[in-house]
Amino acid sequence: MGFFTDAYDLFCISLVTKLLGRIYYHVDGSPKPGSLPPNISAAVFMGSLAGQLFFGWLGDKMGRKRVYGMTLGIMVVASIASGLSFGHTPGTVMGTLCFFRFWLGFGIGGDYPLSATIMSEYSNKKTRGAFIAAVFAMQGFGILSGGVFAMAVSSIFEFVYKAPPYEVDALGSTVPQADYVWRIILMFGAIPAAMTFYSRSKMPETARYTALVAKDAKKASAEMSKVLHHEIEITPWPQILVEPEIIVEQEIVETETGNSFGLFSLQFLSRHGLHLLGTTSTWFFLDIAFYSQNLFQKDIYSAVGWIDKPRKMNAIEEVYFIARLQTFIALCSTVPGYWFTVALIDRIGRFWIQLVGFFMMTVFMLGLAIPYHHWTQPENEIGFLVMYSLTFFFANFGPNSTTFILPAEIFPSRFRSIFHGISAAAGKAGAIIGAFGFLYLAQDKDPKKADPGYPAGIGLKNALIVLGFVNFLGMLCTLLVPESKGKSLEEMSGEKQEETA
Q1: Which residues, 6+ apart, have CB-to-CB distance to 264 below 8 Å?
Q2: Can you give the pTM of this predicted structure?
Q3: Which of 8, 254, 383, 463 is most buried by its number of CB atoms within 10 A?
Q4: How many Å is the Cα radius of gyration of the chain?
């Protein structure tokens, strides 16, 4: 449910940015509706980057459980506050939105390393990939729910408050009540987060953290007993014992001075330096492409004619059509892609799913970009929709899932949370580049056709080519990432271990 909320909060802003531009950045006499400045879209990513680093570090220092509740509390408060504003001018409203979206991102960022680390440390090596992937797969339902909820809200407001298209009456096309639409959509994200708070607060600390980091064998045994509903005998710890019918795995994990190297020490860099480069670079390149596609679907929809030009719709009607298409993409490609990963990751392995995913994203992105004029023809819109959907499918049955899973498996217990946070933060740095860069790159080459306030860009076709090249770089960097399928966390991290059947 944490990741369900994360995805809803991250991507619901893309459903209402056009509406915000119409409400607060209208220019009298302009042939186009107002357009939102790009910094609004990037605020949550900047907060997320900071949260991933901070809570990743804190999770290794204070424990996974204690920090896990903090992130959810921040998300609840910031979600509600995002729909509020101090004052009524564009500057005050957008300033408030940016401020609270930053802190919302801060909480979301903390959820990434903690969710992945907790799930990896609870799981056994035979099904660990599927369990972590299932946590991440809730993103798909979060994106889907965002589209469905936005459709419902906009339909109700459109039915009650009729308005003409922008080209008929520029001011009248945005009714005053439209200001409630975006606030309701953003604030709704607080509900699933609040519903999860109690159960998250009752989670026990992971036994691996308690044993390997906190060095408390008695407490680790007690916490494993709570999880398995089975009394665990205290033996020379850390020893993870489980009921055979629940998990067919037994690991005896011992620490030694040879594994006591420090953060970013030469010994760490020799053992895991290339691994960290692999997890950070692949997540960085993925998020440039993935978040560009997700956040600016609405621009692509308009460019290829899937929805009418903004001037032919009123403000609330535009929200509905953008949400409908996001829902369709999520239902047909995003959600299935996630669950294909859940089903197959422990059979195929992380490495091959990520490598093939990047390769297919490159192929489909270039397949859209190179014959771009062909796809803009009305008779080819369905083909474009299929190709565009397949890029999302192979992102999620591919690197969008595996970049989340691998950092939780290949680093030592005492660094697992922080290095997952660093890897995720590299991804959010890519998302920020994508959020700013794609907005500018995708602008029309003709300055007169660019959105208000933006310079001329390289056009949508060339922007898609750039994203295809970014995916190709991600494929190359995947070669730095090890395969963790069927291996214990201690085996992957190099911590001394002795396994018994």
Answers
A1: none
A2: 0.80
A3: 8
A4: 24
